[in-house]
Amino acid sequence: MHAPFQLLVCLFTARLAWSYQPPSVTWTNLLSEKDATTYVNSMPIGNGGLAANVFVDNKDEREPVVGILISDQRAWNEAGEIMKVGEVTYHFSPSPWTSGSKTTLKQ
After folding, report:
1. DSSP for residue 35
2. Do the domain assignments include residue 10?
3. Which helix (H) or strand (E) holds 45?
4. Taking the complete model, does pTM exceed 0.85, yes or no?
5. How far apart are CA 42 and CA 3, in angstroms?
């Protein structure tokens, strides 16, 4: 009795998997908040044991900095907060944002 229903569900699921197109992501403003480089305006990435927060520091517009704060799920402080165990910074010269304040990034 359940076999035909399960077959229909499998066929429907397979059809959805074949027809799925990932969405197009477009950011129209890549500038961070003025003078605020914190975890609040960073992009969290990662899943599992390692994670990171990526941020852009535009205090010096001629040479912006992209920073990555690395964390590990096993690194906790006394207050129960996940600690950052490393930092990587990239200095860009010349600035990739010289085309204006509305730089578009398509992914």
Report:
1. T
2. no
3. strand 43-46
4. no
5. 49
